[in-house]
Amino acid sequence: MIEVLLVEDDAPTRWRLQDALGTSGEFVVTAAATLAEARLSLGRDRPQVLLTDLQLPDGHGLELIRETRQRYPDTEIMVISILGDEDSVIAAIRQGATGYLLKDAFPDDIAATVRDLVAGHSPISASIARFIVRRTQDQSVPAVQPALNTARLTPREIDILWGIAKGFSYADIAGHLGLSRQTVPGHIKNIYRKLEVNTRGEAVFEALQQGLIRL
């Protein structure tokens, strides 16, 4: 069982995240609504994963990230927030966060992302990945680069990858492309395998790096 400390002051959001992790049966979730509650829980339980919001009623999540990284270096830290601005992303990473997920993530993706975090990956939301890539592209000299497609994705897989990058659900992607809802996960598994990635964010990041899709 993976022990998770969830720090979120908004009750409906906290319940949704708890449900997303609880249905798999592999997570033990302890919830906290404030910075003070989180500190007490960290000292008592030493969870494997800290999943924290940034805006808390009695302080900022960055304080908790910094303290956790210093006191409990083995704890994996993921930020979950509605914030997607540059300062929040860069600051959270600098303080020790190894994953960054926006609150609009699908419930299935939340559990999968925490699982990836524990496995040693650095999962990041697709929208955050787009920001980082755009920031990198803005600083690079070449204005246009040809599509490389070193992964040899099929046109259908590229279409599905574009849907993932836009944040569409599997049902939305299937409806847009005229596919069966059940076939989309199979295509996505092929995309992950060809790109050698494990999460949506990594897939979008790699696809943008190769010029497979443009947003």
Could you explain how this protein is built, in words?
With 215 residues, this protein is an alpha/beta fold. The protein folds into two domains: 2-123, 3-Layer(aba) Sandwich (Rossmann fold); 146-210, Arc Repressor Mutant, subunit A (Orthogonal Bundle), CATH 1.10.10. The protein is 52% helix and 14% strand. It has ten helices and seven strands. Strands 2-1-3-6-7 form a five-stranded parallel sheet, sandwiched between helices. A two-stranded antiparallel ribbon has the order 4-5. Strand 4 and strand 5 (59-60) form a beta hairpin. Helix 7 packs across helix 8, helix 7 (155-165) packs across helix 9 (184-195) and helix 7 (155-165) crosses helix 10 (200-210). The longest helix has 14 residues, at 126-139. The relative contact order is 0.11. Residues 141-146 have low confidence and may be disordered.
List keywords for this structure.
14% strand, globular, single chain, Arc Repressor Mutant, subunit A, 215 residues, five-stranded parallel sheet, two-stranded antiparallel sheet
- Provide the spatial order of strands within the biggest beta sheet: 2-1-3-6-7
CATH architecture of the largest domain: 3-Layer(aba) Sandwich
> Which class do the helix and strand fractions yield?
alpha/beta
Distance between the termini: 38 Å
What is the 3D form? globular
β-strand number: 7
How would you briefly describe this protein structure?
Residues 141-146 have low confidence and may be disordered. Helices cover 52% and strands 14% of the residues. The strands form two sheets. A five-stranded parallel β-sheet has the order 2-1-3-6-7, sandwiched between helices. It has a two-stranded antiparallel ribbon with strand order 4-5.
